[in-house]
## 1
Amino acid sequence: MWEGEIPLPIVPPWTEISVVAGLDESVLRSACRRRHFARGEVVFHEGDPVGAIHLLDRGRAAISLTGPLGDVVTVEILQRGDTFGEQALVDRAAVRSATVTALDKLETLAMDIATAERLRAENPGFDRFLLTILSARLRATNQQLLEALYLPAEVRVFRCLCRLAAIFEADSRACIPLTQHDIGTMTGVNRSTVSRLLRQSQLDGIVVVTRSRIEVRDPETLRRRASLRPA
């Protein structure tokens, strides 16, 4: 079993980042337009023109990309406190680099480019806010790269399940509404290996696997198999 100390990739919620940046949360909220998305609704598609930055205020969303063979793969799950679409404020000529889809009832605070430019002119804390988000995202990406390069496949799968369990946790149990294929694409592990690991974990009483979800029954044992310290 891997004994390294690579931390789980974590990006602080935008409400905390605003405090660090010296930008009042009420200023951000008043500058945004609240958007509502139903479960399964697409916020924007990969290849769309860049538009607003979104501050996720309720619900969860999936980020997906189109693979080289045209298959759609899930690469990350977003939760309340996350942000997406920041590229719109950095490169106006770009297009959306991924598709974002609501996994349940989703509410975001959307800020268009013109409003963002006004805030940048009026409040220096906004630039610090944006840079802190990008810096935190880069650190999390670097940690994910370390996982991909140095952790065995089974540890990557179990660490992914731990991250997802924290996102979907409710009443001490977590029902993760993702498939084995999704877990594989998020970890870079082939589906047969993911299936074998989940099948053994189900026999050991750690998870219950159905066609469209994974329920975590024993989070502490899952953390041990992920080479993580007890919660």
## 2
Amino acid sequence: MFTIDTGAAGNSFLCTVNPLTGALLTSLVMNVNLGGVAGMAFDPVTGVAYVADGGFGGTNMLYSLNTLTGTATLIGPLGINSGLAGLAFRGPAQSGVPDGGTSAVLLALAVAGLFGLHCAIKMRPRQGLG
């Protein structure tokens, strides 16, 4: 099982953990220092690991990740300033379930909608209590 430790000193580490005990097995220094939040997921079809980061000190970028070396390869910007704290893939398409392309569009629309809601709440004038 893999996890990312964004580290207190700005160093990011790719770690392997024993899923039965939670014991740390290995720790690799990554070539990218991620921000205060990061998400990682494996594409179930290709097995490629992807990482997105953001938050305080983050790059707000999407990377592919070599889990043998800890090397993150830049794919591009996330398009939002606050980054992402999680990533997920759904399993292979089933009858009646949208294909990968449709799912990606739906996910993008959902993220854009949540970001818009977040901005709307932040911009809303505060009302007095009395």
